[in-house]
Amino acid sequence: MAEITIDNARTIIASTIAKGQEMGLKPLSVVVLDAGGHVKAFEREDGAAPGRFAIAHGKAYGCVMLGMTGTAQMARAEQQAYFMNAVNGAFGGQVVPVPGGVIVRDNDGAVIGAVGVTGDTSDNDLEAALAGIAAAGLKGDG
Amino acid sequence: MAEITIDNARTIIASTIAKGQEMGLKPLSVVVLDAGGHVKAFEREDGAAPGRFAIAHGKAYGCVMLGMTGTAQMARAEQQAYFMNAVNGAFGGQVVPVPGGVIVRDNDGAVIGAVGVTGDTSDNDLEAALAGIAAAGLKGDG
Amino acid sequence: MAEITIDNARTIIASTIAKGQEMGLKPLSVVVLDAGGHVKAFEREDGAAPGRFAIAHGKAYGCVMLGMTGTAQMARAEQQAYFMNAVNGAFGGQVVPVPGGVIVRDNDGAVIGAVGVTGDTSDNDLEAALAGIAAAGLKGDG
Amino acid sequence: MAEITIDNARTIIASTIAKGQEMGLKPLSVVVLDAGGHVKAFEREDGAAPGRFAIAHGKAYGCVMLGMTGTAQMARAEQQAYFMNAVNGAFGGQVVPVPGGVIVRDNDGAVIGAVGVTGDTSDNDLEAALAGIAAAGLKGDG
Question: Which domain of life does the protein's organism represent (chains A, B, C, D) (predicted)?
């Protein structure tokens, strides 16, 4: 299995933020986690609210730990809210089940990490994240 | 009261995983808890998401601590979500109330432990768990 | 980087327990974590106290998260107790800094997981763990 | 009061890592917090243990929240360990009181954030952090 590198993470973060600026989004916060759910890199743009680390982290963390995209987590939460609540109990409240959490895969499809983006609408967050991951030559599953 | 043994647990886990492979399920994670709700044995198949221990554990833990099957817990959660949320507050968020959590009973009907299976749909998780428990000569109540 | 497989984990656990029985140790509990600190497999022998999962986990978890062996963690705790207390605060109290926590490396020296053994003296726990890891053809650093 | 900017944070992180590489240190992890103790940016070099975010964060967090440098916190912990334990109770275990936690001040001496560095010895972590902060034209108090 490939590992997500700090060079990958730097490209993902810089390209996600650049995409957000090009789209005219509010200031973004972007986290990159490794395949174990541990923080590799993070940036919070000037003007973003101070609590954005936890939101970005929560979007990405659920992707790694459950192997589900943010979009899939949201669908499950809408169908079966008590299940996602229970999942969050099991993970110490660290899962934020909405779009903007994206699984990162290597060329063989193995999960090598996740990206979490927050700051604008969930759909815009997701669009910026996918652009950032593509810029690093990786596959995003959001 | 009989106690669930490590030999029981090994048979349950191996047979649950074999059943899942035979059914063509996604990679499974299987935990066996004793009558006190404490982990006796666990395996996570290659390819399962890293957070699956917490989900498997949460399915089994509620079975032992509440004396309710995963199926019964789900029914209660759907009728009275706030109640299962409150239960989870009392149990530190460790209860995941869906099928795949199975009470294990001895021949007299006494609870001697529980099994939690996660990885595919809740219904498929449950079917594999019941096969694993039966392979150990025990009675599963899911 | 290689990944620790469920086959590796099964061999490590079976061989650690066999070694403990050969050495005449008390009943052992053995956990195998992956490179992200997530549980891959666990067994608690009949006769071991119910809380042994948390101790085995805590020995292995610190190895992965800090990149330090259980022996090195104990040395640091003895020199600078407040530091290991603070580390434990940062990791939610999950680190048990004594021998019996062993880093598992691949042939290139990369950390691919950790093993935690508890039940007898820390030194005996470590000896059994190293035998189990060697039986899987891997390198243990304890 | 000036605020620490994302440009400041990028320079601090890049320069701290460059300094560590120049000094021949082990792979570093570097966090920059704002004046409210909230994460602004973070990087973990390839090869660093996965748990390093929590340690870097803990070094910087105590600096902001207590207005004490990592060096001063260590002195207090060595004199009065129970006090720093109690502080950690109040702060949810998030304070790691050793060198490598550095207060960042503006030209008027106001605290605008903190940097936390971990990976090598505490003294080397501190030296790299001070170099990174100086490279951003700011004053580090370690």
Answer: Bacteria
pLDDT value of position C1:
56
What does DSSP assign to residue A128?
H
ipTM of the complex: 0.95
Going by pLDDT thresholds of 50, 70 and 90, the confidence category of residue C2 is: confident
Residue C30 touches chain B, beta carbons under 8 Å? no
| Cβ within 8 Å, pair A67-B48 | yes
Q: How near does any CA of chain A get to the CA of B137, in Å?
A: 31
For residue A8, the distance in angstroms to the closest alpha carbon of chain D comes to 11
Are D95 and C86 a contacting pair at CB < 8 A? yes
Which residues of C fall within a CB distance of 8 Å from A3? 1
Say yes or no: A89 contacts chain B, CB-CB below 8 A.
yes
Sequence-distant (6+) residues with CB within 8 A of C24 are none
Domain contains A83:
yes
Does a structural domain hold residue C109?
A: yes
Q: How many structural domains comprise chain B?
A: 1
In a domain, B1, yes or no: no
**How far is the C-alpha of A66 from the C-alpha of C36, rounded, in Å?**
14
Instruction: Determine the Cα–Cα distance for residues A29 and D59; give it in Å rounded to an integer.
Output: 22
Band of pLDDT at residue B1, cut at 50, 70 and 90: low
Best mutation target, A11, A31, A39, A46, to test chain D (most D CBs within 10 A): A39
Q: Which domain holds residue C79?
A: 6-141
Q: Give D105's strand partners.
A: D111, D139
CB contact under 8 A, D40 and A38: no
Which regions in chain A score pLDDT beneath 50? none
User: Does residue D1 sit within a domain?
Assistant: no
CATH code, domain with A50:
3.30.450.150
Name the E strands within chain D.
29-34, 39-44, 101-105, 111-118, 139-141
C3 contacts in chain A (CB < 8 Å): 1
Alpha-carbon gap, residue A20 to A135, rounded angstroms:
13
Region B38-52: what's the mean pLDDT? 97
